[in-house]
Amino acid sequence: MGLFDTVVLPRPVPCPKCHAAIVEVQTKVFNPRQNTYRVGDPVSDIDDMRIEKEELYCVTGRELTGRFVYLCINFWYPCRRRRLSRRSEGSHR
Fold this sequence. Notes:
Helices cover 0% and strands 43% of the residues. It has no helices and five strands.
């Protein structure tokens, strides 16, 4: 029991047993405060980067599914567009 945080999945995952849509997973890997997160949300309670494995729970079937999701926490990839000037392309005018 206790407090959990909720992570909303980017797209529903079908339960392998009853085929109900699983749209979220609950976790205690953050500092559980009953927050709701979506993919891309910052997690301020964690200072390091890590990957956590969570088993999906089917609310309709009321049981664990044996399927897992992996939460990549505090990973970010800077997206830099490389701008080339005419000079760097070989035109020296």
